[in-house]
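Quick log. Single chain, no ligands specified.
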Amino acid sequence: MTLTKGRRSFIIGCGCTAFIKPRGQRTTEDMGLEAATKALLDAGITYDLIETAYVGHCFGDSTSGQRALYNVGMTGIPITNVNNNCSTGGTALYQANNCVRSGLVECALALGFERMAPGSLGTNFPDRPSPVAPFSSKTQELEQVLKAGSNFGPGAPRMFANAGQEYFNKFGGDIVHLAKIAAKNHAHSVHNPYSQFRSGWTVQQVLDSPKINKQLTKFMCSPTSDGSACCIVASEAFVHAHGLENQAIEIMGMELETDDPTSFESNSAMEVVGYSMTQRCADKVFAQAGFAPGKGRDEVGVVELHDCFAANELVTYPALGLCAPDAAHKMVDNGDNTYGGKYVVNPSGGLEAKGHPLGATGIGMHFYITMQLREWAGPMQAPALFNTVDRRGKYGMTHNIGIGGAVVVSLLRRPEFYKAGGTDGRSRLGYNHGCECRSITLADVEKVKSTKWSPYILGHARL
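-> predicted structure:
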């Protein structure tokens, strides 16, 4: 298979902070410094080699990206701030990847972070209509044709709950399937040291948690979170020049898709939350990776998808092509979304358990999939990813969506030249950051900062 567009690109370094409850304990610049430092250490390079950066955040002020990255250097490179609702992190990485694939740069950085307020998502601009207002009003109109009737609760969970209800009406399944998905994700998160929740709630505990609306309980919903993640993307020539064949993971395909009229004109609650948008995006990604239409899903082994609510994970299975349109609830019953099944979906615990700092979420997904494909994921490791005839093994997949709307889907895989061993990111950080979470020190920053840096700026950092 050959790529259909652009040159090859690789994730060579990544880093993540713990995702924590939003209590205002950390600034975005300090969280961004931690994630970026870890990613640079992982890659074994300094900030001098970064040629462009994209920084995602929804609740940060203007130029928050510069403020965070100026901690590791002030080199004059283009730094672009990105806001694309819940798909912000994926969008930042998509842009960085495009710069490498197109040949504009050899090495680009994507950083995402968020410092959020507790409770359900709201608007920063109450003096004007929200851009997602048409989505909210459309889903409420459609409640009249759903068997559950009029719904209640905050806007975002209401939209995704209605999508789940439409799936139930068409194909079967019920709220217990949503509880099984949530319990699966919370069970996975027990092994993730970066995760906001590690309680491992059972199906019954999920069902017994407070009701958010007719279909969703509290433990079926992702929390608001503070946190940051960072990925560094480079060309094949850069990988070889810096001896990163022992950890570079190839981005086989990555696409960003926005809404078409189907979101409103099909009179479908599933379409309001991006069902066909995801479907189109996934099809393009598999085509970009060289697969014929409808092919390639059986070669995926591990997935990090956007389970902002358990209902969205349910409807995303068929949207990505992981099962037939009517088989998502059967996939849950058969255990084909967890260890021992066909796919391991959200081994990190997903948004429901590990947290959802909007700007960091999509980049964090790539952190986790990269660690899976390096086999650095420790107790989160998906089994049998490399029990294949092709030594490159199975693919890892990510899915990051935001209402309003945009979705980013990617396929990652080991390259044919991958060879484990020798000095790698674990050696440079001093531990396996794929399955262990530690803070950074000033000595860590000193190793990766540019030769052009400001003592005044770095002096304000709180490590």
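Strands lie at 9-16, 52-56, 79-82, 107-114, 227-235, 249-258, 300-304, 344-345, 395-402, 406-413.
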